[in-house]
């Protein structure tokens, strides 16, 4: 299987597999490309699969600046879309990545409608009143102390336990994959800055624009998601006109890791149906 790994001209780390109509995957807060490992084989067979580490996460740079808002993250991915001249694009976003994907979908539908073909939201963020409890903690002064003083593996394990319905499925490899980037220079800074800025000041305006997303949209949610409740997926389904809501039973916040076969099957069916 072909694979390339590069730093883009805007310095985000990305991995590219296969060829065909592009699929861009955007991970959640504190995660990285590793979360999509089960997607590589099935979705690179007929598509160009592009996995991106958001600024401040994974192997992407982690500068000590304050440009970590949801809009900043969306701007960086938008530049990749233009830089790589991506068309007939499917955007897939989980959690924070879902919020970034929503901003991108709104922008692309308004400004570059030929580029975006499909949208997949996996346990996506979207509504301030349903901000996860651990995220509220991280945004507090106590949270700052916890992020800077807690061992990275302990922090990664804590978040994974919140994200999984079946905690027995959490592996040492997962804990390691999410702990290592936190310890790299700027890792904790990036995590805190992103957490503090994950709710845009114009959130009401953005939510009102969800109705302008015109592409077929799959909203996938774990029934037992304790991070972003199913209610958020239901609200997104109501707001996005051409959307379908599907629920993965006995599953938490990251179906692509906890129930990858089912998540892949649901997404593959959706992509085949709207081609």
Low-confidence blocks of residues = none
How are the strands ordered across the major sheet? 1-2-4-3-5-6-7-8
Structural class: alpha/beta
- Helix and strand pattern: EEEHEHEHEHHHHHHEHEHH
Number of strands: 8
Number of helices: 12
End-to-end CA span: 24 Å
Q: Provide the gyration radius in Å.
A: 17 Å
- Determine the fraction of residues in helical runs and give it as a percent range: 40-55%
The biggest beta sheet reads: 8 strands, mixed
* Morphology call: globular
Whole-number mean pLDDT: 90
How much of the residues is beta strand, in percent?
15-25%
Characterize the structure shown.
The protein is α/β, with parallel strands linked by helices and 275 residues long. Helix content is 43%, strand content 17%. It contains twelve helices and eight strands. It has helices at 40-44, 70-83, 96-111, 133-138, 141-149, 152-163, 172-183, 187-196, 203-208, 230-239, 255-258, 260-274; strands at 3-7, 13-17, 21-26, 47-52, 89-94, 116-122, 217-222, 243-248. A hairpin with a 5-residue loop joins strand 1 (3-7) and strand 2 (13-17). Helix 2 crosses helix 3 (96-111) and helix 6 (152-163) packs across helix 7. The protein is globular and about 45 Å long. The two termini are 24 Å apart.
């Amino acid at each position: 299987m072909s694979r390339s790994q590069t730093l883009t001209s805007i310095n985000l780390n990305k991995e590219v597999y296969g060829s065909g109509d592009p699929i861009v995957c955007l991970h959640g807060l504190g995660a990285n490309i590793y979360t999509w490992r089960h997607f590589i084989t099935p979705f690179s067979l007929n598509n160009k699969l592009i996995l991106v580490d958001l600024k401040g996460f994974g192997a992407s740079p982690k500068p000590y600046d304050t440009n970590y808002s949801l809009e900043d993250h969306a701007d960086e991915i938008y530049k990749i879309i233009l830089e790589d001249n991506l068309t007939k694009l499917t955007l897939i976003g989980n959690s924070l990545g879902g919020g970034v994907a929503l901003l991108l979908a709104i922008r692309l539908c308004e400004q570059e409608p030929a580029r975006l073909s499909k949208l997949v939201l996996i346990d996506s963020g979207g509504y301030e009143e349903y901000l996860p409890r651990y995220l509220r903690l991280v945004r507090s002064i106590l949270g700052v102390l916890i992020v800077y003083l807690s061992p990275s593996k302990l922090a990664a394990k804590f978040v994974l336990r919140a994200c999984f319905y079946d905690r027995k499925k959490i592996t040492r490899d997962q804990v390691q994959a999410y702990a290592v980037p936190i310890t790299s220079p700027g890792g904790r800074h990036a995590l805190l800055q992103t957490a503090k800025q994950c709710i845009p000041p114009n959130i009401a305006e953005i939510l009102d624009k969800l109705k302008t997303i015109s592409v077929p949209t799959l909203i996938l949610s774990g029934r037992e998601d304790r991070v972003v409740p199913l209610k958020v997926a239901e609200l997104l389904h109501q707001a996005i006109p051409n959307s379908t809501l599907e629920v993965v039973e006995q599953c938490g916040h990251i179906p692509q890791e906890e129930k990858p076969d089912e998540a892949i099957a649901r997404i593959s069916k959706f992509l085949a149906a709207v081609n």
